[in-house]
């Protein structure tokens, strides 16, 4: 891949859009950016990283023997940010962008990453929306994760540090190379070899293996349970056999009783003609018993009613006497009444007779024939006395005596319905008595038709039948219980059989685990083999590079890379260089990094920030000589003017240097900096702040900190 | 007047007594024609029946006395006063003759297969 253009907008000191054109007609691969500190060299370096990977991570640090990854530099916010400070503070929306144009095997490549505030004056990356678009050749524009995947297909992220080399961090690289215990370089070697995928595969396989082992362990436990269950199955089978045997015994017992019952029923059938008679006799017996009870009640009633029967009889004759006495009583009363009336008449007449005066009470005239009248009264009085005498002499019983007599008769008098009640109770008793007799006769008749022996037989058979039916009922119940027990035992047996059955040793699991184990070993062997090949290759390439870079090729034969990728400088005599200088170590480091880059097979530009920081003049020149040797890879350096002088470098590497730029602030210029002008005829305001080129009218503010990238004419 | 009537004792022949005994209710043989709760009741029935029919029989043979406490002859004094006075018999004697006659009829009835109460 070859970069053609880089467009930076609002990053670091670059306000507005800055376009870097890397196209050139010559085949040189060297590109150089020259600038004082703070002008934006590293910003370009970081702009590329941000555009490709979406983040800029600060340099990693090694603390107490452990590598600590650098933190991600924020796009916006407090502290050191990626966005241009003016854009961040003043623009709305806040926006920064990097667009990269390149050419690759698949055609032209365009990568555009833009970050735009999603709200007014975003203050954190969460408030920024990042858009990534990638177009390769004539293919459709990709975005998002697809775009990122496309980038990493030709620029693997794991290999970032081989293409973005931080000269200030060479010591760190060196430390990694010399202290294999840090395993830093091993990661790089693995990345170069594509081993991370293999390692991930190994990890996956290890997880699979653990899963299979877990399964095998489970199966193993299940096998143990199964073995135990098998023992239990044997015991359970015995239990089931015993239960089934009990069921069979009970069934036989039941069959025996059923058979006996059949026989009994058969025998009873042979006496079938007697059965109704026997039943009838039984019924009659019951009826007789009932009748006896009724008859007893009737007899009691009859006895009770009969207590006054004598009165009924007695009254038949006594009633006449009673009537006679009643009449006598009436007559006696009448006679008494007549006697009293006669006595009263006698008294009245006697009194009248004594009181006769011979004068009429009404007219008071003297009565004629007074004597005749007196004689008449006397006669009347005498008659009355005779009558009274006669009445009194004829009296036999006084009414009082007769009342007593009648009272005695009343005691003998029955109640009016006594006779009827007695007759009724008598009839009832008689009827029941007859009924009972008839029933007994009927029963006797029936009994005479059934022999006692037959009855006895039938009774015995009936009794047997009852016993057998009860026994069958009991046996059926027992059988039900036993069958239920057998069913339970059978279910338990099935359960145990299932437990014992499912489980056999997980042969497939074992085989799979063995296969996985073999695969892991194979992969590890492959990795080891790759590493070894890579080590040899890295050792060879880095030795070649080192010899080219170092200024004493006769003294050093190359670099030794041991199995842990610990590197040392090898001398021509075959020994290892003890106490190498900083420059020698830096060259060794750069050699190894370049070797690794080459081994990776990735064809991409290399960016080297502050390339000469740890190198002396000779080594710096050798470095550029080597990297700009026109091997097809673009090699971009971002050099401080103290590391590489612009004019000397341009002069010395003419033909190797494709393009060069200076990065400056407007304030750095006292003359016109427009490439096509370069006039020294400039004027400025009295304060020396604002400058104007009189030739091309270019104006600039000496106070501005917005960096400018100016191409150098080679 | 009362003093003229002799009370006398009440009794029946042994045969009649046996008859009366057989007419006393026994709850173990309810089918038998035994309509009376006691011998006295049976005696009273025999007396009443004979009185109603106005038939008497002189007792003969061994006599069985009926307990006077249970059969109070005075209860029948007014009923039989005239007869007793006319016959010159004792009240108990007259009653006994009636009863004897009644027993004989009852025996006849039973013998004929009828119930005693059919005499009503």
Count of individual helical segments of chain B:
4
CATH class of the domain at 315-414 in chain A: Mainly Alpha
Outline of chain B: globular
Enumerate how many helices of chain A there are, as a single number: 17
Low-confidence residue ranges of chain B: none
Report the structural category of chain B.
Answer: mainly alpha
Number of structurally distinct domains of chain B: 1
Major sheet summary line of chain B = 2 strands, antiparallel
Unreliable stretches of chain A (pLDDT < 50, length at least 5) are none
Report the average pLDDT across residues of chain A: 86
| CATH fold assignment of the domain at 315-414 in chain A | Helix Hairpins
The strand order across the widest sheet of chain B is 1-2
Q: What's the layout of helices and strands?
A:
The complex is a heterodimer of chains A (714) and B (120).
Chain A: E1 2-11, E2 14-21, E3 30-35, H1 41-53, E4 61-63, E5 66-68, H2 85-90, E6 95-104, E7 107-117, E8 128-136, E9 142-143, H3 144-154, H4 160-163, E10 164-166, H5 170-178, H6 184-192, H7 195-270, H8 274-306, H9 309-354, H10 370-394, H11 399-412, H12 418-449, H13 452-502, H14 507-549, E11 556-561, E12 567-571, H15 582-600, E13 606-609, H16 617-627, E14 635-640, H17 646-652, E15 657-664, E16 682-684, E17 690-693, E18 699-701, E19 708-711
Parallel strand pairs in A: 3-14, 3-15, 10-13, 13-14
Antiparallel strand pairs in A: 1-2, 1-6, 4-5, 6-7, 7-8, 8-9, 11-12, 15-19, 16-17, 17-18
Helix pairs in contact in A: 5-15, 6-15, 7-13, 7-14, 8-12, 9-10, 9-11, 14-15
Chain B: E1 11-13, H1 14-22, H2 39-53, E2 63-65, H3 77-87, H4 91-111
Antiparallel strand pairs in B: 1-2
Helix pairs in contact in B: 1-4, 2-4
């Amino acid at each position: 891949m070859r970069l053609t253009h880089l467009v930076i907008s609002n990053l670091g000191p670059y306000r507005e859009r800055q376009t870097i054109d890397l196209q050139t007609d010559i085949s040189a691969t060297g590109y150089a950016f020259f600038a004082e500190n703070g002008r934006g060299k590293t910003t370009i370096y970081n702009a590329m990283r941000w555009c490709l990977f979406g983040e800029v991570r600060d340099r990693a640090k090694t603390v107490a023997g452990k590598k600590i990854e650098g933190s991600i530099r924020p796009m916006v916010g407090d502290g050191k940010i990626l966005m241009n400070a003016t854009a961040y503070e003043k623009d709305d929306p806040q926006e920064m962008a990097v667009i990269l144009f390149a050419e690759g095997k698949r055609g032209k490549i365009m990568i555009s990453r833009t970050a735009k505030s999603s709200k007014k004056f975003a203050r954190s990356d969460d408030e920024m929306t990042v858009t990534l678009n990638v177009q390769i050749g004539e293919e459709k524009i990709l975005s998002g994760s697809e775009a990122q995947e496309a980038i990493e297909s030709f620029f693997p992220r794991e290999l970032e540090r081989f293409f973005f080399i931080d000269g200030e961090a060479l010591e760190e690289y060196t430390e990694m190379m010399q202290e294999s215990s840090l395993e830093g370089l091993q990661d790089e070697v693995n990345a170069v070899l594509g081993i991370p995928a293999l390692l991930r595969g190994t990890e996956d396989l290890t997880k699979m293996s653990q899963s299979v082992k877990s399964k095998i362990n489970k199966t193993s436990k299940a096998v143990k349970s199964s073995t135990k269950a098998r023992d239990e199955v044997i015991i359970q089978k015995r239990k089931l056999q015993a239960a089934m045997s009990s069921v069979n015994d009970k069934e036989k017992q039941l069959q025996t009783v059923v058979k006996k019952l059949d026989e009994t029923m058969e025998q009873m059938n042979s006496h079938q003609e007697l059965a109704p008679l026997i039943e009838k006799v039984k019924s009659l017996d019951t009826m007789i018993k009932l009748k006896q009870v009724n008859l007893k009640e009737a007899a009691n009633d009859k006895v009770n009613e009969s207590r006054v029967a004598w009165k009924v009889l007695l009254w038949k004759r006594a009633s006449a006497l009673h009537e006679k006495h009643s009449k006598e009583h009436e007559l006696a009363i009448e006679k008494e009444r007549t006697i009293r009336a006669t006595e009263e008449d006698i008294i009245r007449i006697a009194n009248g007779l004594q009181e006769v005066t011979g004068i009429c009470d009404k007219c008071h005239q003297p009565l004629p024939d007074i004597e005749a009248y007196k004689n008449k009264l006397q006669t009347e009085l005498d008659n009355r006395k005779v009558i009274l005498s006669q009445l009194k002499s004829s009296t036999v019983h006084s009414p009082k005596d007769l009342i007593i007599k009648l009272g005695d008769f009343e005691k003998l008098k029955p109640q009016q319905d006594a006779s009827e009640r007695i007759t009724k109770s008598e009839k009832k008793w008689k009827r029941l008595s007859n009924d009972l007799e008839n029933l007994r006769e009927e029963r006797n008749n029936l009994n005479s038709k059934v022999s006692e022996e037959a009855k006895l037989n039938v009774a015995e058979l009936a009794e047997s039948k009852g016993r057998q039916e009860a026994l069958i009922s009991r046996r059926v119940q027992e059988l039900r219980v036993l069958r239920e027990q057998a069913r339970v035992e059978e279910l338990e047996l099935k359960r145990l059989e299932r437990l014992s059955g499912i489980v056999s040793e997980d042969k497939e699991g074992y085989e799979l685990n063995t296969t996985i184990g073999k695969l892991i070993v194979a992969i590890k062997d492959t990795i080891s083999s790759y590493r070894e090949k890579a080590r040899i290759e890295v050792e060879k390439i880095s030795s070649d590079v080192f010899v080219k870079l170092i200024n004493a090729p006769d003294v050093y034969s190359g670099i030794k890379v041991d199995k842990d990728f610990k590197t040392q400088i090898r001398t021509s005599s075959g020994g290892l260089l003890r106490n190498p200088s900083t420059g020698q170590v830096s060259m060794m480091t750069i050699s190894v990094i370049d070797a690794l880059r080459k081994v990776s097979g990735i064809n991409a530009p290399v960016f080297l920030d502050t390339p000469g920081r740890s190198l002396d003049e000779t080594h710096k020149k050798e470095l550029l000589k080597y990297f700009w040797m026109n091997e097809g890879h673009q090699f971009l350096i971002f050099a401080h003017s103290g590391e590489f002088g612009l004019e000397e470098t341009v002069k010395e590497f003419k033909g190797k240097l494709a393009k060069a730029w200076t990065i400056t602030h407007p304030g750095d210029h006292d003359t016109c900096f427009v490439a096509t002008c370069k006039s020294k005829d400039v004027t400025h305001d009295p304060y020396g702040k604002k400058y104007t080129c009189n030739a091309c009218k270019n104006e600039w503010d000496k106070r501005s900190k917005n960096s400018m990238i100016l191409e150098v004419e080679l | 007047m009362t003093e003229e009537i002799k009370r006398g004792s009440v009794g029946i022949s042994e045969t009649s007594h046996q008859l009366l005994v057989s007419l006393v209710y026994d709850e173990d043989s309810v089918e038998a024609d035994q309509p009376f709760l006691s011998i006295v009741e049976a005696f009273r029935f025999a007396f009443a029946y004979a009185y109603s029919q106005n038939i008497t029989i002189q007792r003969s043979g061994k006599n069985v006395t009926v307990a006077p406490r249970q059969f109070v002859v005075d209860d029948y004094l007014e009923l039989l006063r005239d007869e007793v006075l006319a016959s010159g018999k004792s009240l108990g004697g007259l009653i006994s003759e009636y009863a004897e006659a009644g027993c004989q009829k009852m025996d006849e009835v039973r013998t004929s297969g009828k119930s005693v109460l059919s005499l009503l």
